[in-house]
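Batch manifest, entry 17 of 40.
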Amino acid sequence: MTPGFRALFYKEILRFYKVAFQTVLAPVITALLYLLIFSHVLEEHVQVYPGVSYTAFLVPGLVMMSVLQNAFANSSSSLIQSKVTGNIIFVLLPPIAYSEFFLAYVAAAAVRGIVVGGGVFVVTLLFALPPLREPVWLIAFALLGSGLLGALGVVAGIWAEKFDQLAAFQNFLIMPFTFLSGVFYSLHSLPAFWQGVSRFNPFFYMIDGFRYGFFGVSDVSPWLSLTIVLVCFFALSLFTLQLLKSGYKLRH
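Output type: structure tokens
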């Protein structure tokens, strides 16, 4: 790791750590509210997997949803704030390679996503204790998912020129894709048409693969989910690196 990468990564970690009440505690409380509401209403009426309570089923989905949303929020908000305030110049002036720029933002986003996800998991243990049957799969999807959303956040931060543009990106893309990815339900509970539509949602494969790490059961093969997430991650990473290399909306 070069000094440039370490400095930028440390800056991004420090940025969300200094306001941890907003960046970590607030999303943990939000996820806890989802768990309380949905489990209270549906616990006695819904069972997705044999022998698994609905509350336990919700836990992996809420954890992964928190990981994805906060990884995206970290990199996207950092870039748009730097662009709006004008201090992006202090990041671009040092001799930091665009690949180091990319890795620092994505790695810091992944750290925030996983920290928030870990906080959600710890809090939800008060209500349910899901098994950890395949922890390697759990770790793989957590890392890939947070990296993918961190890269998407870099794209959004580069593209957006105002906060409302970034808010539109999050409200009309990130939120619907995460909420319609099987966090609160199984794919097999949907009508055939919507099952087909859901299979085009890459967030579904991240949620489903992560849930497999807990229960050893999933709606689709974890290998299929892993392949799709890997392809999306590498494709988006290459696209993001090309944007950074070209200087699109950063240097030009």
